[in-house]
Design goal:
signal, 6-stranded mixed beta sheet, BMP_lipoprotein, 12 strands, alpha/beta, Peripla_BP_I, 2 domains, Rossmann fold, 6-stranded parallel beta sheet, cell membrane
Length: about 350
Amino acid sequence: MRQARGMQLLAVASAAVLLLGVSACGGGDDDSGTGDGKTKVKVGLAFDIGGRGDKSFNDAAAAGLDKAKQELDVEVKDLAANATESENDKYERLKLLCTSGYNPVIAVGFVYAGADPATGPVAKAAKECPDTKFAIIDSVVPGSNVASLVFAEEQGSFLVGAAAALKTTSGTVGFVGGCDTPLIKKFEAGFKAGAAAAKAGTKVLAQYISTPADKCSGFNDPAKGQTVAEGMYDQGADIVYQAAGGSGSGVFKAAKAKGKLAIGVDSDQYNTADAAVKDVIITSMLKRVDVAVYDFVKSVSNNTFAAGTLTFDLKKEGVGYSTSGGKVDDIKPKLDEYKQQIIDGKVTVPTAPTS
C-alpha cells in the first residue's frame, strides 16, 4: 500500500513538473499569447476513471474539450484519474491545474464532489483558488466560482426504456449499472418507467457491478460487465441497457456472443464501439456532456460565466436517444411522442426506482 501511494504521489509530482514547465516556458501549443495582446484562455480538465478512450462518458467530455480548443482557440490540458486514488489525490489534481495557470478547470464526474460536496475535492480547490472558475459534471457543489453541470438522465433513459419494451420479443430486458449510486439509480428509474409505459408487464432485470465502497470500479471493468450481462441474457433478457462507462464494452460483447441486443449510453455508441459489436446496439441514451463542457468553456471565454446549477434535460437537448443503425426507425414516432410529453410536463419521470 505504501509503495502504491508513493507511486501516486510521484505521478502527481511528475505532472506538476510538466505543467509548471509548460506554464513557464511557453511556446508550441501552450503559448499563452494570442498575437493581439490578449491572454489566451487555458482550460484544464480532470477526467473520471477510464479517461480518454472509454468510448462513453469521458470521451463525451473530451469531445467538448476538443471542440472548444478548435472553435474557441483556447489551450487545453487534460489529466487522467487513477482507479485506486483517494479524494485527496483528486483535490491535488484540481489544485495542480489551477496553480499552473489553468482557468477554467473542469472536473468530470461525481467522484470529484467527494463524500461531502461542501468540503470535497472541487469545493476545497475552488476555495483555495478563488480566482479560478470551476465546473463539475454530475454533481452539485457550492461555491461562488463553481458551475454545477447536471443532467436529467432519467428522461433520456425513459426513452430508451420505451424502445427496449417496444423491441423486446421475450418480454424481459435488463439494466446494468456501473456503480450503485443515486446518480446511476436515475438511469435505472427512467429505464423502468419507460419500459412500463410502452408495454405494461415488461420485466426489467437490474444489477450493479460495483459500489462506492470499492471506489466504483464497475465503471472500468469490461470483464465484469460482460459477466453480469451474460447472466441477464441467460435469464431471458433479449435487450440490456448499460450505464457503466468503460464496462459497457463488456455488455456489448455479451450481447454479440449470445445473439442478443444492447443499448448504449452517454455517446452514440453505435458510432464509437468496436466494429465487431456495433450491430447489437439498437440505440444509445445520449447524455450531452460534450455540450455542457463546450458551453461552460465558451461562457468563461466570453465572460458570461455564472456560478450555480445548470440542468441539461430533454427541453435543452441535454439528453436524448440515438437512431444510428436504423434499428429504432420504426418506433421513432412513438419515442418522439413520449419525448414531447415529457417536455410538456404531461409525463413526469421518476429519479429513483420504485421497485
